[in-house]
Amino acid sequence: xxxxxxxxxxxxxxxxxxxxxxxxxxxxxxxxxxxxxxxxxxxxxxxxxxxxxxxxxxxxxxxxxxxxxxxxxxxxxxxxxxxxxxxxxxxxxxxxxxxxxxxxxxxxxxxxxxxxxxxxxxxxxxxxxxxxxxxxxxxxxxxxxxxxxxxxxxxxxxxxxxxxxxxxxxxxxxxxxxxxxxxxxxxxxxxxxxxxxxxxxxxxxxxxxxxxxxxxxxxxxxxxxxxxxxxxxxxxxxxxxxxxxxxxxxxxxxxxxxx
Length: 259
Fold this sequence. Notes:
Blueprint: H1 2-11, H2 24-29, H3 34-55, H4 61-76, H5 79-91, H6 97-105, H7 111-134, H8 136-160, H9 169-175, H10 179-193, H11 203-229, H12 234-256
Helix pairs in contact: 3-4, 3-8, 3-10, 4-7, 5-6, 5-7, 5-12, 7-8, 7-12, 8-10, 8-11, 8-12, 11-12
């Protein structure tokens, strides 16, 4: 439970027990509960967009999409979006390894980061809007699933790719994440997504397909980063999570529209 609460506090703005001092081990061991943290995020966001779509009778899809996107940002404090922007600024700068790492560490947003965030926001808002046109149930299933899948992809990245920096917050994750952690998180993800079958038989297969698409995107992006800087960083973890969520939502939409 302690590891779960640490993960919840780090990945969201939800504080059950506020802690400011963590050991590297307890911080690293929280990784296996990241999909469960994603489920908490998914439940809250699905509740928000589902209620809005229900009470507006699906007549305000863009508002539903914007509120869904904003809910995710508010719940997470934009931590993963920050990682996406820093990653884009560094990886697409055309510089050498050390300069890329320095750019990624810079708190200021550059042009590549801003463009990447605008594209992702547009994709997510428009996808949520189109999902809201299908049905409230389909929308809620997608919004619940995406954060779980996104955080599983973070675990996969942490446990599979080398950490690129000599030190950093993400190093504790990498040190205590093994293949066993990945299998644990994958099993956890399956258990969290299985209840979708209680709503409709199509939702769990949709989530499985979304997971496969997210895995392909994650693998390609993490490989690209590894080629550039010799591994991944905390910013890459955030970028992977954001991209995986967006592509999971898009997969739900494509299946819902009959491809």
